[in-house]
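Form P-L/3: holo structure prediction, ligand pyridoxal-5'-phosphate.
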Amino acid sequence: MDNEPIKQQRNLVTELPGPNSRALEARRSAAVATGVSSMFPVYIERGEGAILVDVDGNSLIDLGSGIAVVSVGHGAPELVEAVSEQIARFAHTCFMVTPYEGYVAVAEALNRLTPGDHEKRSALFNSGAEAVENAVKIARHVTGRQAVVVFDHAYHGRTNLTMALTAKNAPYKDRFGPFAPEIYRVPMSYPFRDTEGMTGAEAAARAIEQIERLVGAHQVATVLIEPIQGEGGFVVPADGFLPAIAEWCRNNGVLFTADEIQTGFCRTGDWFACNHEGVVPDLITTAKAMAGGMPLAAVTGRAEIMDHVHASGLGGTYGGNPSACAAALASIAIMESQDLAGAARKIGATIQARLGAINSPRLGDLRGRGAMMAIEIVEADGRSPDAAAAKRIVGACHQAGVVTLSCGSYGNVVRLLPPLVIAEELLGEGLDVLVGAIEQELAS
Ligand SMILES: *Cc1c(COP(=O)(O)O)cnc(C)c1O
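OUTPUT (holo model):
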């Protein structure tokens, strides 16, 4: 493999997918289970910054970051060095057998960076879903209550408990039941689809009324919410919604758990999305961008809550793996030294300006925060979801070498999650391609 730096430029030398990708795709169909699918079957060989180079030598602009994971960019040298150095020293001991400093240092960083200046503790896991499962375990343990309240359009993972917490049936839950009991779903604040003018306080009152009537406040262990929904469509609740829900929790002995797996670590222009409204969760789950591409997840919470669980009640073979911890410490150092929260705000402003300039009733909503932005594509009535159009727009971007993703309960949202280190010029080029794809769709 050559180690020439990769130019931060889009460059297509074959059609996409090219011949080498197509050959790999044939091998894949014969070897990999159909249930695990890929949006864009272009096989990647190298990455640097915001560029992915495929096996045919095409350079693609990455506006997806592997679903909000490589915020520090592909191949960040500090991260590569930290992981290489760690794995050379030792790959694994299991923290539950013989501990090591990296795990402790990651817990310290999480306790320092997550919202609130109260005393905290953290526990590390492998995946976002595993962190969410553990947050529920902890909330039930400390409250002695069982009910978990979640929201419409929520996404919390694909394991059995987290499938139950996730809202959308297909593809996540279809034919995979039965699901875990004691999960209750209430309406989210979704300004674009709620009654015009509904405030955050009104949307919170609507949810709280249902919790009290259908579940009973005294039965609820935790209310679990993404402060900005990810897979559900980058739904940003109306101002005041999160604080009102958090306050109701506080008044009723219910733990407020923020799932910041997608929104966390600078993505929304602050360390955590809860910070935008000064909301301090009792428990917070993190994963994705925390370790820049290595699998690592965490639950962080108030010391008295976290320490309520008996010794050996939490854990796992690989949770807080040494290399993943080294990657997290390197990623966090990059986020701090390069002010990636500030970079996310700039990226957000650029995307808003560019996409906000397109005037069409079929761009129903442009929303998000920082470098977590999306457009909801609708029919000419300005409201009915148009998933086919969103799919065509994403497909056109792919054909032109720009990795974008779709999402949303109705499949009609095109989302942007660029690496936070993306150069202004490269982002501009990616947006040119996206705008071209949108204009082509609007003209058809
Ligand atoms: C991705 C995601 C999860 C699940 O994380 P995995 O690492 O895929 O298990 C949970 N919650 C949110 C908000 C996510 O975006």
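COMMENT: The first helix runs from residue 19 to 31.
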